[in-house]
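Hey L., structure's done. Input below.
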Amino acid sequence: GKYKDALSAVNEGLTKGGVKDVADADIVKGMALVGLKQTRAALMAFQAAGKNPKAKVVAGLWDLYARTSK
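Output:
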């Protein structure tokens, strides 16, 4: 499915290197993991993204969504 494809693409980009904005990649990774119902891994991705001040608010909102959606 699309979530699996997105997760694979993000992981591949992070592994290869050259990703311009790692925080954005972590947010997309977390979003895909939420879609795959892998909440714990998604929260870890959002936490990593939140270390970047530019991404902190968006990562925090996704973290809240992941924690509260069932």
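The chain has a mean pLDDT of 96. The longest helix spans residues 2-16.

-- N.
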